[in-house]
Amino acid sequence: MGREFASVGVVGLGTMGAGIVEVFARNGLSVMAVEVSDGALQRGEETLRGSIDRAVKRGKLSADDREVLLGRVTFAVGLDALHDADLVIEAVPERLDLKQRIFAELDRVCKAEAILATNTSSLSVTEISVATGRPNQVIGMHFFNPAPIMKLVEVVRTVVTAEDVVTDIEALCARLGKVDVTINDRAGFIANALLFGYLNQAVSMVEAKYASREDIDAAMKLGCGLPMGPLALMDLIGLDTAYEILDTMYRRGGRDRRHAPVPLIKQMVTAGLLGRKSGRGFYTYEKPGSPVVVADEFTPRADAEAATAARAIAKVGVVGSGTMATGIIEVFARAGFEVVSVTRGAEKSAAVCETLKTSLNKGVVRGKLTEQQRDAAIGRVTWSATLEHLSDVDLVVEAVVEELSVKKALFASLDEICKPGVVLATTTSSLPVIACAVATERLADVVGLHFFNPAPVMGLVEVVRTIRTSDEAVATAQAVCQALQKHAVVCADRSGFVVNALLFPYLNDAVKMVEASYSTADDIDHAMKLGCGYPMGPFELLDVVGLDVSLAIQRELYLELREPGFAPAPLLEHLVTAGYLGRKVSRGFRDYSKR
Ligand SMILES: NC(=O)c1ccc[n+]([C@@H]2O[C@H](COP(=O)([O-])OP(=O)(O)OC[C@H]3O[C@@H](n4cnc5c(N)ncnc54)[C@H](O)[C@@H]3O)[C@@H](O)[C@H]2O)c1
Questions:
Q1: How confident is the model over 425-479, as pLDDT tens digits?
Q2: Is 192 one of the catalytic residues?
Q3: Integer angstrom CA distances of residue 398 from 10, 139, 301, 390, 496
Q4: 145: Cβ below 6 Å to ligand 1?
Q5: pTM over 0.85
Q6: Which of 88, 92, 252 has most ligand 1 atoms within 8 Å of CB, for mutation?
Q7: Is the CB–ligand 1 distance for residue 86 below 6 Å?
């Protein structure tokens, strides 16, 4: 028979502690909620009540249940109130000295059989445990933010944690409706080890003015389907907490430079910009603790200036006959543009036309467009095998093979054929846009228009501005995206732009984690989906994208940025060499042939 856990204690009622109290109370446990001062206790109680009131408002909780739930919670200042608890969870700020002091005190106050758990994100549970006389009863219970919503708990066992303690905590997680992954004590555990390098890198993009906060967040939401962008997430986590986690991970996790906190984070913490909890972080909020973002001096204004600067675009040339070109033709034709498709021959044009018709027909069947709209879209496309037919278009989008020599030759031809003032765009996902631009005499008119696959479905386009692109060409590209009902994010001409630069190092890190035998592909996929709300785990995504494609992108990032942490994981290289390329060959990280 396992332990009962009739009464639990929570120490620290900040962002995490208040949420953890709610989780326990919702599941029928009595909770002793403890803070360091009357003021902090009052703030913690307000946070808890605010969250419960929101649940009642949204119809997730009845008014009666609200009272029952609150009736289960007792509030107190000081650890002495915890003498009767069967389990205590500590959720005070991420500092080792503070946590050790609290654990030494808990050891003195709590009954001998009580389990002591820490919610630390990055500190060593082992180092915290040795501050007590019962390290075998100390364990990590790492909840995710917001605790009442996120399903995952990482259960962290040290080399001395007793097996029955692990089993009982696992059973408790199940009782709380949580899914646990049990792992050893390593900096950042699973989720944070994969998350924080990405968050830090996103902050470095803001610091370098590579792209705006809104654009970085929109790129990751729309390009990867994440529930929130990295900067909004930093605000939710709290910049002070994020700083401490990064700093600890840097020191404990092999001094990976990607975990060295970007200086901007420290500056913001010093200035009191802690995120949602202080009312201002990367964004400004209605009031401290509120999730409602309000406009501030960095909010882009409804861009009257950019709109006037944009050139009029009515006729568009699309060069290429692959998946991207076909999707892009569809997007433009459906949005009412006249389209000239140029391929390398009549046969290819016929094949693209067929694919386009099939896709539009599917749209009709699904009720996304009418038969008239389908016919009108098809009627807007003219098919050609000679670039000369692009002499009167206003915009050219090339989506030919991802080889610089081919793209350069194409841009040189376009330069000769197209009329002045045309915007020339490349859909490259990994080549430098400026290398295409220098093949022409009109560098100011060349931009990147990075569509995502499938182009008719994905709502994001990265507009890439080179060091020679004019404001007018960027404004035109933005206006075109708006007409296509795509969200345009503007970024500089660097390998991976925003999405791939932030996504692939994370995927590569996940591979390294499996390679190091720290965890399994299944547990890691679980952790990212249930702890961070990602639509797919990294291994699911790698198998969909293709391991060869992922490796090629990761290599490009590594070669351009020379960041040692970006070096492709040897396991990824080996799988590609072995022909395990993902779903397209029925075998990648997982075997799909038997499913
Ligand atoms: N913020 C997140 O997204 C997140 C997610 C998972 C885990 N964590 C971890 O949870 C822990 C708490 O982080 P947070 O973001 O909730 O921090 P926070 O700053 O929001 O809250 C910490 C709370 O601890 C209280 N406190 C400080 N000293 C105390 C003491 N001696 N006794 C009792 N209470 C005391 C503070 O008054 C404050 O209310 C950290 O270890 C952090 O790494 C945070």
A1: 999 988 999 999 999 999 999 999 999 989 999 999 999 999 999 999 999 999 9
A2: yes
A3: 58, 56, 31, 12, 18
A4: yes
A5: yes
A6: 92
A7: no
